[in-house]
Amino acid sequence: MNPQDTRQTMQQYAAGQRLGECLVRGCTVMAGRIRALGSPQPAPGEDDPKYAMPVRSVELQVREWLVGPPLGDTVLLQHAARPALGKTALGPWLAWEGVRLETGAELTVARWSAQASRPSWMGQPEDVALAVSDPRLQAALREAVQQHLRQVQQPDQITQLPQWLRERQDAFLLGYALGVLMNGEATHNADRATTLLTDLLGLAAMPAPVRLQVADWLGGNFYRLSEAARRATTQALVVLGSADDAGVAGAAVSVLVRLGDLQLLDLRPAPSPARRRKLIDAYRALQARQPGAHPAFESQLGVH
């Protein structure tokens, strides 16, 4: 995958993740056409125009409400653009990246609910979680919303996410799923969220930066699990850590190593000799990239 494709994939993943977070924290989703655009103005709160965030009003003629009760035929939104200069890459402009901003353009928007826990900018909560104008992304957004509504009506449907993602192999839908699991499911059923995220760690089409994010989440949230879920997750990580895919194996072993450092690792029953050899190979590859001592992991695996 060339750098341009990687960048585009990660942008789509980030957009899907923003949608997932919005859906579990509270938002409305609408589809329509841009009816009118205001003139760009610097957002208040910054005296230097080079550091000010350009904003403009977007009047959306709403055709369909996908999530939430209808709130009228016309909605006024505020578009945000990245400042010319700034100290952070994060801000309200991320919700609008890649949007075709012109009168008559089709637009699908996920907007934060008033009570939702959400990012803020200059002391003010952000209004728009995500806006998309690309037809393919709009179709993916609609599919994600339909999947989410099924899960709301039948919560056990969430267990189908790994298989759904394997069938779709779509970066936007992957971002949506991880946003839902990490920000929604994990808050009230950490065991199930961890089981599903461990399964997804082995997803062949998962971009390397996303796999690292999942591995980091698993290592950081393991302490929350029940004893049964800890055992099951550890054994699943052992299986993934001995996989032929170096990216999958390296990510899984990195979680096991972290658990050892945190004194949370229990590799009983011991891996088979063949699996142990593969785990050691993956560990040595990890050590070549990130040298360091991990005595607890090495002791339990028998690394010499």
Walk me through what this model shows:
This protein has helices at residues 3-25, 135-153, 161-168, 171-188, 190-201, 208-221, 227-241, 246-261, 273-289, 295-301; strands at residues 27-37, 41-42, 54-67, 74-80, 106-112, 120-121, 124-125, 128-132. A hairpin with a 2-residue loop joins strand 6 (120-121) and strand 7. Helix 5 runs parallel beside helix 7 (227-241). The model has no long low-confidence stretch (mean pLDDT 93). Strands 1, 2, 3, 4, 5 and 8 form a six-stranded antiparallel β-sheet that branches. Strands 6-7 form a two-stranded antiparallel ribbon. The chain starts with a helix and ends with a helix. The radius of gyration is 22 Å and the shape is elongated. The protein has 304 residues and is of the alpha+beta class. It is built from ten helices and eight strands.
Radius of gyration: 22 Å
Question: If helices are DSSP runs of H or I spanning 4 or more residues, what is the number of helices?
Answer: 10
Question: What does the largest sheet look like?
Answer: 6 strands, antiparallel
What's the number of extended β-strand segments? Answer: 8
Shape: elongated
The H-and-E topology, N to C, reads as HEEEEEEEEHHHHHHHHH
Kindly state the percentage of residues in helix. Answer: 40-55%
